[in-house]
Design a protein that fits this description.
Layout: E1 4-8, H1 38-49, E2 52-55, E3 78-79, E4 82-83, H2 85-88, H3 92-117, E5 121-128, E6 144-147, H4 155-164, E7 169-171, H5 182-187, E8 195-201, H6 208-228
Parallel strand pairs: 1-2, 1-5, 5-8, 6-7
Antiparallel strand pairs: 3-4, 6-8
Pfam family, one: FGase
Organism: Rhizorhabdus dicambivorans
GO molecular function: hydrolase activity
Amino acid sequence: MNGLLLIADHASNHVPGDIDLDIDPALLDQHMAIDIGVAPLGALLCEALGMEGIYGGVSRLVIDLNREEDAPGLIPTESDGFAIPGNRLLDAKGRRARIERFWRPYHDGIAASVAAARPRLIVSLHSFTPRLATRPEEQRPWQVGVLYNQDDRAARPGIAALRAAGIVTGDNEPYSGKVLNATMNAHAEANGIPYLGLEVRQDLIGDEAGVAHWAQRLAPVIVEVASRLP
């Protein structure tokens, strides 16, 4: 489907060999390091809809690509109660080097793609953990959340379409796009481009069957939202 662009900031758990985070390697397969299921789900959605896709190529524990350059959590020193000792050792020079190596090329690439193609709709794809280790009592019942900041042109019909399809849908849940929306703020809102920010619960897309199922459910929603835009 022409005019669509998918962006998945946290699609990878890759940590370059010259970066030592000093963490248990098992953490790299958990939600702190990667948006579980997003890479294969994004690939199926792009294939089904003829979308171009841009995927973050480094773990969010190396640098969080969905943060502003000056955000305190850009290079996390802890995540969901787990310390990231290697990042605590970074001085200002090391922080700047990591920004220049990963964050800036990623966002420069998005900016160039958006300027060249001027998409009608950007789909921002993330996934969220059903339960945070630091807040085990918190209920996260939504199957999909729709995140947005000031521009809700795609979010409103997206929420309506998801709910009409029987999908338990969060409106700026499990967290608010008015607080955390850096990539869409910079590349969609700043350019006046509508965007649909989708957060899928990770236990639903943790295996191949789940990914295929949710690609089939989400593709028609994206098509409907795009068709409603002027």
